[in-house]
Amino acid sequence: MNLEQLQSFVEVARIGHFTRAAAHLHLAQPSLSRQISALEADLGAPLFHRARGNITLTAAGESLLPLAKRMLADADTVRYEMQELAGLRTGRVRLGATPTLCISLVAEVLTSFHATYPGIDLHLTEGGSHGLLDELSGGTLDLALVTTSDGRPSATSLRRLPLLTEELVVIAAAESPLLHDLQALTLTELAALPLITFHESYDLRAMTMRAFQEAELVPTVILEGGEMDSVLRCVERGLGVAVVPAMVLADRPGLRSVRLTAPRLARSISLAQRNDVTLTRAAEAMQSLIIETANVLSSVEAGGEGLITRAA
């Protein structure tokens, strides 16, 4: 078994076609077929059900796929670690983050990091917290900035460093009469306002809807399933209100916010990494900058309304 065979196997599994997978790998199809056959002979089990125009994984193939992806990801990490022996002039960092963090904390971090280490390749993956933790476990991410609101334990192969606790606030257009001169809003009052909600993949949507359900309230949803940027733009244009993390309001003068009380909703922001892998020097530098930036955010906010605080 070798890495080239594993790469061929993963590509055929992803594409579902030998000829197209061979083209993607810049191989002749007979060479690709020989690699797969040699891998199957070495493992002692067929990996694909081969039918004309229909290539699917066998049970052995299903078992091998996540392991193969993990081995290939770890091999890439080794290559980048060797490149780093000359210092942080080359290398790579694969960072995952939730959509709300991508437009706030992560944007600040990546700008500073690139200015300091311009030779480091940066790869950003945006997604929900649970999906990002799965990718981290699978070896396709070095670090993941995730959020939690329910206290669920993380996988034992991962460890989390709590960074910040952030309140959720209600936002409306700066000139909108929807929030009037309010300084705070209860969940009951919010239920009567035209609400714009996020896509189901957003963790904070689930958190908000769970709060309504627990209070036996039915929100007045006028737009459902938006992504972060579209929700913020619709709110800026006066279509309705939305519940968002306080951090996303930075540099958005077209929005105003009020605190949500009774109940107060907050989320925890953590930095996750694998327990069984030592971070590369580039990833360590990224980790340090994320922690430093989070500390600065909490210090600045400490002089304001206290919406963002250091994690306990």
What this model shows, in words?
α1 packs across α4 (about 60-85) and α2 packs across α3 (about 30-45). The protein has 3 domains: about 5-80, Winged helix-like DNA-binding domain superfamily/Winged helix DNA-binding domain (Arc Repressor Mutant, subunit A); about 90-160 and about 270-305, D-Maltodextrin-Binding Protein, domain 2 (3-Layer(aba) Sandwich), CATH 3.40.190.10; about 165-265, D-Maltodextrin-Binding Protein, domain 2 (3-Layer(aba) Sandwich). The protein is an alpha/beta fold. It contains 11 helices and 13 strands. β1 and β2 (about 55) form a beta hairpin. The mean pLDDT is about 90. About 45% of the residues lie in helices and about 25% in strands. It is globular and about 70 Å long. Strands 3, 4, 5, 6, 7, 10, 11, 12 and 13 form a 9-stranded mixed beta sheet that branches. Strands 1-2 form a two-stranded antiparallel ribbon. A two-stranded parallel ribbon has the order 8-9.
Compact description:
By secondary structure, the protein is α/β, with parallel strands linked by helices. It is built from 11 helices and 13 strands.
Could you give me the name of the CATH homologous superfamily of the largest domain? Periplasmic binding protein-like II
Q: Kindly give the count of domains.
A: 3
What is the overall silhouette? globular
Determine Rg (CA atoms, Å).
23 Å
User: In CATH terms, what is the architecture of the largest domain?
Assistant: 3-Layer(aba) Sandwich
Q: Please count the beta strands (DSSP E, at least 2 residues each).
A: 13
Strand content range: 25-35%
How much helix, percentage-wise, in residues?
Answer: 40-55%
Rounded mean pLDDT score: 88
Q: What's the helix-strand series?
A: HHHEEHEHHEHEEEHEHEHEEEHE
Would you identify the regions where 5 or more consecutive residues have pLDDT less than 50?
A: none
Q: What structural category do the secondary elements indicate? A: alpha/beta
- Total number of helices: 11
CATH topology of the largest domain: D-Maltodextrin-Binding Protein, domain 2
Q: Please write the CATH class name of the largest domain.
A: Alpha Beta
